[in-house]
């Protein structure tokens, strides 16, 4: 059992609201994160094989380009009746890559690939919690527990397309039912999340940002940076500009800044 203590006042921590409650717009979504991995094709010399939970999907030998191999693997994975019941494949961060996303929240899958696929990059772990002060995108596949679903972004369109935009997760102090209550740092999978769409909220920024600057959100993990985080620009097909969002304060790299949101 958990007891939620809503954030009732401005607080300078990730996900803390900077406006007086009542002056902002908050919706509730269910954390619907699923395991998400990206594969990058690095060679055309061998036939590409990817195995999901022991089920092999084999590409055509002799395709001329890395992009052609990646595109074919997306088609073959989604056309395989057994594998497509476990995962869905879609375009990756580059033309030579593709993303494999679990179909069921809370259910892990194991992917093994031939040597011409780069080491798997796990974008979102299975059963991942979503931290306070992270950007989330709408999951348009339906509802969970009567609520709209949301998860972390893994494509630029999750940020730039208005119908996909959910907002930023709001901090709530969640106390686990134990002798010593320990504050949580985010929303567990399948739990309801408070998501800010209009108002001002504190976030941690990856690099230095300036007041009035455009807000960018990361959709591809890199180094120690995780998806759903905030920064000042796109360092190279890793982040996208969030419409109707600006930095209301300046901050140094790794610091806290206020983001002003006016999402439609």
Structural description of this entry:
The protein has 264 residues and is mainly beta. It has 2 domains: 2-33 and 128-262, no CATH class; 36-124, Alpha-Beta Plaits (2-Layer Sandwich). It has 2 helices and 20 strands. It has helices at 66-79, 157-160; strands at 2-6, 25-31, 36-40, 49-52, 55-58, 87-91, 97-102, 111-113, 121-124, 130-131, 135-144, 147-151, 165-169, 172-176, 186-187, 192-204, 214-218, 230-231, 239-247, 256-262. The strands form 5 sheets. Strands 2-12-11-13-16 form a 5-stranded mixed β-barrel. Strands 6-7-3-9 form a 4-stranded antiparallel sheet. A hairpin with a 5-residue loop joins strand 6 (87-91) and strand 7. The longest helix has 14 residues, at 66-79. The model is unreliable at 1-9 and 175-182 (pLDDT under 50).
The chain-level structural class is mainly beta
N-end to C-end Cα span = 35 Å
Beta fraction:
35-45%
Runs in which pLDDT lies below 50 for 5 or more consecutive residues are: 1-9, 175-182
In spatial order, strands of the major sheet run: 2-12-11-13-16
Helix content: under 10%
User: What is the global morphology?
Assistant: elongated
The main β sheet shows up as: 5 strands, mixed, barrel
Give the secondary structure arrangement, pairings included.
Blueprint: E1 2-6, E2 25-31, E3 36-40, E4 49-52, E5 55-58, H1 66-79, E6 87-91, E7 97-102, E8 111-113, E9 121-124, E10 130-131, E11 135-144, E12 147-151, H2 157-160, E13 165-169, E14 172-176, E15 186-187, E16 192-204, E17 214-218, E18 230-231, E19 239-247, E20 256-262
Parallel strand pairs: 2-12
Antiparallel strand pairs: 1-14, 2-16, 3-7, 3-9, 4-5, 4-8, 6-7, 10-15, 11-12, 11-13, 13-16, 16-20, 17-18, 17-19, 19-20
